[in-house]
Amino acid sequence: MKKICLAFLVCLGVASCAMADGAGIENGRLRPCPGSPNCVVSEGSNASVVPFFIKGQQGWERLRQAVVSQGGSIEREDEGYLYATFRSRLFGFVDDLECRRDGTMVQVRSASKVGWWDLGANRRRVERLRQALLPDGEK
């Protein structure tokens, strides 16, 4: 019964929302999240997570390593911007992760490409990355 309910919820979620409209910077910032609960962002009026704090190029490199070690595929990287995708194990859904360097902070946006609700997957991803960026003594 649980599998049937889960399959129904997934189908409903996929059918209820169109694909996300890509990634990138708009007016010098990460795009805001849509009204659906499958996205978190650290900047703008609808910020729902705190940005990451890093130190220098080593901090940026630690971020890159954390993304890859947690299953992300870095698709594009420009000066101070990183775009990666993550694929869910069960159904193979693809989520976007964007990071924009902002001084010693890294603004972050993680969003599902399809569906309405992600069961908190994007928020958990951001928090796992945050933990990976903490100095070893603070973990």
Outline the fold blueprint.
Blueprint: H1 2-15, E1 25-26, E2 29-30, E3 39-41, E4 52-53, H2 56-69, E5 73-78, E6 81-87, E7 94-102, E8 105-112, H3 121-133
Antiparallel strand pairs: 1-2, 3-8, 4-8, 5-6, 6-7, 7-8
Give a short synopsis of this structure.
By secondary structure, the chain is α+β, with helices and mostly antiparallel strands. The protein has one domain: Kinase associated domain 1, KA1 (TATA-Binding Protein, 2-Layer Sandwich).
List keywords for this structure.
139 residues, alpha+beta, TATA-Binding Protein, 6-stranded antiparallel beta sheet, two-stranded antiparallel ribbon, 3 helices, 8 strands, globular
Detailed description of the structure:
The protein has 139 residues and is an alpha+beta fold. It has a single domain (2-17, 26-138), classed as TATA-Binding Protein (2-Layer Sandwich). Helix content is 29%, strand content 28%. The protein has 3 helices and 8 strands, in the order H-E-E-E-E-H-E-E-E-E-H. It has helices spanning 2-15, 56-69, 121-133, and strands at residues 25-26, 29-30, 39-41, 52-53, 73-78, 81-87, 94-102, 105-112. The strands form 2 sheets. Strands 3, 4, 5, 6, 7 and 8 form a 6-stranded antiparallel beta sheet that branches. It has a two-stranded antiparallel sheet with strand order 1-2. A hairpin with a 2-residue loop joins strand 1 (25-26) and strand 2. The longest helix is centred in the first third of the chain and has 14 residues, at 2-15. The protein is globular and about 50 Å long.
